[in-house]
Amino acid sequence: MTSDGASVRTQAEVSSGRRSLATMLLAVARVAILAGLTITLLIVLLLVTGHDAGAALSALARGAFGSWYAITSATLVRMVPLGLAGLAVVVAFRAGILNIGAEGQLLMGASAAGAVFAVLGATNAVLALPLMLLCGMLAGGAWAAIAAFLRQRFGVLEVISTIMLNFVALSLMGWLVRGPLQEPTHIAPQSTSLPVSLHLPTLLPNSQLHVGALVLVMLAIALWWWFRSTASGFRVRAVGANAAAAASAGQINVARTTATAFVLSGALAGLAGSVEYTGVTYALYDSFSPGYGYTAIAVALLAGLHPLGVLATALLFGALEAGASAMQRDAGVPSVVVSVVEASLILAVVAAQQWQSRAVTRAEASA
Amino acid sequence: MIADMSLTSGFLDATVRWATPLAFAALGECVSERAGVINIGLEGAIICGALGATVAAGIAGVGAGFVAGALAGVFIAAIFALFAVWMRADQIITGTAITMLSLGLTGTIYATYYGANGVALSTPTIHPLPIPGLSAIPIVGGALFAQPAITYLLYVLVPVVAWWMARTHAGLALRAVGEHPEAAIAAGIKPRRVQAAAVLFAGATAGLAGATLVLAQAGTFVEGMSAGRGFIAIAIVVLGRWRPWGVAGAALLFGAANALQSLFQAMGWEHIPYQLFLVVPYVLTLVVLAGASGRAAAPAALSRRDIGAS
């Protein structure tokens, strides 16, 4: 799958492992370039579709950063599921697993948390909240394990299996909120709302920003450390860079490493779902996730598959999603325009990587 | 007895109707994969084809709708080819981005021009065109030969592609690129050109699949109406073992899985949650992919990125 240039690059990454100040600055520059590119793309799209770009962009800015509420209760609140699911994608892609199933794993995580509430009822939050989050992780991991098993045992391309499982998860949730988990009056297709005692605690006054944000930051740091400083993290990177070499030269059990990374990825996405449920929506319903699991792919790729980079790109996309809602409400621009921008950014990054790896190849050829 | 007959013919008719767009998309993907390119962006080409067909059919009629659907598919496939074939970027990541791009683009265009005003967009549709004689064959006649004309195009396209791939020089070149790119280059074949052509062909058929959804079935455009058919088509190619006739047969199987839904409803099994029927094609895809392993017939150079020369 990897071209010569790409494998040279990833090997360099594997062997270096540490990030100097210069690379950190480079990462900042990278995000700035991406933000600029995002706005440029958006302006072009708005002009092409005949919208008032000025009005739309100011609505976007107001919706994302215009007030305390916008920053803490719109942008940062959306950053949390995008970041957690983004970390899920980072773990999988780093291990060479193309997990497109974060969306389904997220939905299963939320559903599991909802099921825990249905069983326990309004009990002690100290007991119930961790249990809901834990079961969310387990469910997400289990959902990913299906695809991991199909890949390991039957060689089923995980891209296809995870997408199929996304559709199945969506239908499963649709059934749950009309069946076993439906609210007691059986009118609306949604689950019973969580009582206030079972909401994730908020972090700041006058905002909806919940503890999940803290969890995101801690997990990003933990994963960064894991990749950088632990043997198991190194094994995952080595397998992702070159599975054959990892097996022969590194004596690494590729099958086990891959399966572990796949399930861990699913667990992170499942956590994103259960955190969103206990921290934001408090109920399950059909459109529970506006495609967070798909946007997470862009979040991860744009972060260069770096856990700390995910914090920056999740913030960028959180702002974009928050702004898009305001843009739709105040300027009549369909919010789905954001996914065009996201996809274009993925393509831009992919193209940039190709140029880069070609340059490396050329430089080596001439050396 | 009469009720049974109409139930059976209704089921078979629904099978072929569901299978038609799947077969179009999968036939194109089959050609593309034989050239070594796996195109996850097929889903995007289908949804673009659907919107292109909707717009054009509203202006200039059904025929223009099909042409525009195919062209829209080619357009989006050209973007895929630019990145995945010309630049040799990762095919899977590029394809995923192309699908996201298409879903967003069609959603934006639809909401901007039609959705915002609450205009329900309805297009002319083509009606079944029974072939005299053939359509009178008991049981299968109606299902196979009383379909919209676009289905008959498939009856022509499948044997033509099968013959072209197996018997012509160009077909051999295509397979050589997908199996032994180095040998193909040595023989003077330009892999990038062959692959780009194959990808564009797949774009056209996927666009036709989208046009079929609108013009022969739904009669309107709905955001995300491709509903995973592009991904299912990729599974169909695997089940059909990368052969046009196999692909056609596999598409019928998936058509039947979809048709079960209406069959069960007609049989009054309404106490079963309808979501259970919705997931049948997706679960079937997983089962088929798992079952198809071990009988590997995938092109040897599928998704390889280190193929040189233009």
Share in helix of chain A: over 70%
Radius of gyration of chain A: 21 Å
Beginning-to-end CA distance, first to last residue of chain A: 25 Å
- Count of alpha and pi helical runs of chain B: 13
The biggest sheet of chain A, with number of strands, parallel, antiparallel or mixed sense and barrel status, is: none
- Low-pLDDT runs of 5+ residues of chain B are none
Give a structural overview.
The complex is a heterodimer of chains A (367) and B (310). Chain A has 367 residues and is an all-alpha fold. Chain A has helices at residues 4-16, 21-48, 53-65, 68-94, 102-120, 125-154, 158-176, 212-229, 231-241, 243-248, 254-281, 292-302, 307-331, 337-366. Chain A is globular. The model of chain A is unreliable at 1-18 (pLDDT under 50). Chain B is an all-alpha fold. Helices cover 72% and strands 0% of the residues of chain B. Chain B contains 13 helices and no strands. Chain B has helices at 2-34, 42-60, 62-86, 91-115, 140-145, 149-167, 169-179, 181-186, 191-218, 229-239, 244-266, 274-278, 280-291. The longest helix of chain B is centred in the first third of the chain and has 33 residues, at 2-34. Chain B is globular and about 60 Å long. Classes of the chains: A mainly alpha (367), B mainly alpha (310). At the A-B interface, helix 6, helix 7, helix 12 and helix 14 of A face helix 4, helix 10, helix 12 and helix 13 of B.
Fold blueprint:
The complex is a heterodimer of chains A (367) and B (310).
Chain A: H1 4-16, H2 21-48, H3 53-65, H4 68-94, H5 102-120, H6 125-154, H7 158-176, H8 212-229, H9 231-241, H10 243-248, H11 254-281, H12 292-302, H13 307-331, H14 337-366
Chain B: H1 2-34, H2 42-60, H3 62-86, H4 91-115, H5 140-145, H6 149-167, H7 169-179, H8 181-186, H9 191-218, H10 229-239, H11 244-266, H12 274-278, H13 280-291
Helix pairs in contact in B: 1-6, 1-9, 1-10, 1-11, 2-3, 2-4, 2-9, 2-10, 3-4, 3-9, 6-7, 10-11, 10-13
